[in-house]
Fold this sequence. Notes:
Layout: E1 2-4, E2 16-20, E3 23-29, E4 37-45, E5 48-52, H1 59-70, E6 79-84, H2 89-102, E7 105-109, H3 113-119, H4 128-135, H5 139-147, E8 162-164, E9 169-172, E10 180-186, E11 195-199, E12 204-208, H6 229-242, E13 247-250, H7 259-282, H8 288-294, E14 296-297, E15 302-303, H9 309-328, E16 333-337, E17 340-344
Parallel strand pairs: 1-2, 5-6, 6-7, 7-8, 12-13
Antiparallel strand pairs: 2-3, 3-4, 4-5, 9-10, 10-11, 11-12, 14-15, 16-17
Pfam families: Lactamase_B (PF00753)
Keywords: Hydrolase
Domain Metallo-beta-lactamase: 37-252
Amino acid sequence: MIIDDDPAGDWTAPGVYRCAPGVYRIPLPLPNDGLRAVNVYALADGEGLTLVDAGWALAQSREALASALAGIGAGLPDVRRFLVTHIHRDHYTQAVALRREFGMRVALGRGERPGIEELARPRRDRRGQLDQLLRAGAREIVEQLERYEPPDGLGEYEFPDDWIDDGAQILVGEGHPEQRVLEAISTPGHTRGHVVFADPAAELLFSGDHVLPRITPSLGLEPVPGKSPLADFLTSLELVRSRPDAVLLPAHGPTGMRVHQRVDELVAHHAKRLDTTLAAVQDGHSTAHEVAGVLLWTRRDTAFSDLDLFNRMLATIETAAHLEVLVERGLVTAGDQDGIRHYTS
């Protein structure tokens, strides 16, 4: 059964939700993940469907997707292609798994190519994130990650069929009443190759993890991080803010918010976070790990020590991104000693 999307409802509840003519939101489960679900959007595409994002390659996710598609009179073989916003497992890997079975095309932002190439290497040769944490002074996090290293999972990742370039015009439903043209917009920051898809005629923005309505996206959590993820993210926010306003269709959280409103909130959040990060350096905390340890996290102002391992890792990486922007702005100086980056005001 198709239900009209209700921004005030439980956005994670299984089902299929009409959020615009010819556009259906399908929340897919993320077991053991604080995000709880990821929104996949099904767009009418002639006699088939184009999906924006795909979900995590898990049995529960596949079952939920198949059930939701049945609710709009379709099935997995009717998916013609996936337009994936970025490389993270909860967005990309189910597209790869379903392509093996049904042969639909998978498209990904060209900026994600270094990450895909890195993931093609044996895990023992991939230390980008661990080395990043060591440089941040977070040896205790690295030791725990190495102790509880997850299964390799190389089979989850393969190259896409198509690389999406910034500004690409993607025709969906050609020759049909629901025909639409999506514009791909490169929005690095969350990952270096993140893209969003704008539908100007319908005033919609499929925002992936670039603009989320209730949380701030992580920065630089990827196999090959960019040089300055926060600087990239803020530039990408400015780009999206410069475009005509639209309805936000995010990967996590409810639909319905206006893009400009949420972008303004995210910019204000990071301005405040830069101030508190600078204050921590002025108080004598010199590494990203030390600074992260004295800041509060999540909407609930959780102490760093109360975060789980994964979120301590995210917090440390995000703090390093803020510190590098402070360096770029000339507010702190940085230098490396014994492989650890130290910051002083």
